[in-house]
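[job 4471] stage=fold_predict status=RUNNING
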Amino acid sequence: MDPASPPEQLSLVHEQVQNSLDRSVTAAVCLRRFLCYGSEGPTYTTKERALGIENALCLMQFIEGGRGCEVVEEVRRLNLEGHVLCSNPSLFALAVCSQHADCKTKQASLRVLKELCRSPAQLFAFVQYKKELKEGSGMWGRALRRAVTDWYNSQDGMSLAQAVTKCKHRVGWSHRDLLRLSHMKPTNDSVGLVCKYITKGWKAVQEAYGDKENSEDLQRVYAYLEAVEKAKHSTDELEIIHLIETHRLEKEQILTNHLKSKEVWKVLLKEMPVVVLMKNLGKLTADKFLAPGSPEVAAVCERIQDEEALKKAKTHPFNVLVASENYKRGHGKRGKLKWEPERDIVESMECAFCKSISTVEPTGKRFLLAVDISSSLSSVAHGSSINTVAIATAMCMVLSQTEADTQVVNFSDGSLVPCVISSDLTLMQVATQFIKTPGGSTDCALPITWASEHEKTVDVFIIFTNNQICGRENPAETLKAYRQKSGVFSKLIVCGMIAKSLSIADPEDRGMLDVCGFDSRAVDVIRNFVLDVM
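[job 4471] inference complete, writing structure tokens
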């Protein structure tokens, strides 16, 4: 895209995708890419990107072109529709809009803040971006003070009490900082109670509310904060258990010392979301809470395999796989925490992976998945803690079982072999088709050429490789030839699972995407790309 060209109307983001062979990258596409994964280019990388004006040129182009309000609406739409993978780029974009001289743009960005900042961490991030972007004068003008005040006043007292006691500070900001700098004036009594707790502490709350006849709402908020304070200072295990059960306190509100107690964990697990439970399996096993053959193991296994719980959690099978592989490894990231994996839990996690596949919504596209076996797939992927054969296997299983028209192949040095993946196969059984003796070179154009020669109609090609060399043929040119022959605007996604950089995607072609490394966000990036979100 020519940076000097005027941005097209953002209403184009709502258009139905046509099977046009001429689908160039537009300013709106670059903007959506930035909002979804933090880069305007056709490359998603698992490495965290620094956000700055210099890598948000199309964002600035729209704003400087008098289209700031449309940018704000696009930020809002993508967030509410669940397409934003990380909130930081959106919050950065809102911060940029809020700094603009155009009054309507500034007002629009601050007006949606309370809607899009669902957690204190996101509010803190927005304020930090404002600080980094400020030029000359201070940032705490009337508009920002009002927006921050509105964020706190838009919460009900109980929700605010839960939020501020679970997330007290982030990126150098605390609730006390924001209340002080925004000149916060609560608009209802329960929010006022929480604000006094933040700024003056628990003793001041006791003095102001402890001996008074308070409303039912105030009583609930007061009792909750009292429970949080008691949990901070109590040494009585039974009291901690009672507080958790009565007030539904969460792990973040319990002291580390109490998290060594089996009984405390037992009551925490009753309300703990299944995704959080999976992440804590290693610690629970290391602390001997999950002993072989114990009732606790049986209860945990039942929860892990609960299809309704998995559906409610909306967790992708890939996330289940990561949790499973981390547990099987028997130690934490830095190796300090160690445990002996419990066989029943390992089997339950494998079962949970298979069950969670049914929670994935199909896209209705026709896929060709190609796994490059020209080099060993035993490496650990960038951005993940699991090996690349597990990633390729999992993605092939998920797409094969959720998309009605999916072909899987493995390829190496001019040779391509179709693979059979049925729902009754295990991860290991599928993986054996990709664990071959490596040899030869990678040719990322080969799967496209094979599809063309065998007259396969493909909407999306996805290639999984550990190599960074595309081969003799140019995949971009091969893809264009395939589109010309088939009459379908096919897309190409190349997942370089151990690559720190890739340059296969044509920057001018909207239908090409490079993925460097592989993590849970990569799964959503691929889905967004397939569905023309970006």
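[job 4471] summary: The beta strands are 43-45, 169-170, 173-174, 366-372, 405-412, 415-419, 460-465, 491-496, 512-516.
[job 4471] exit 0
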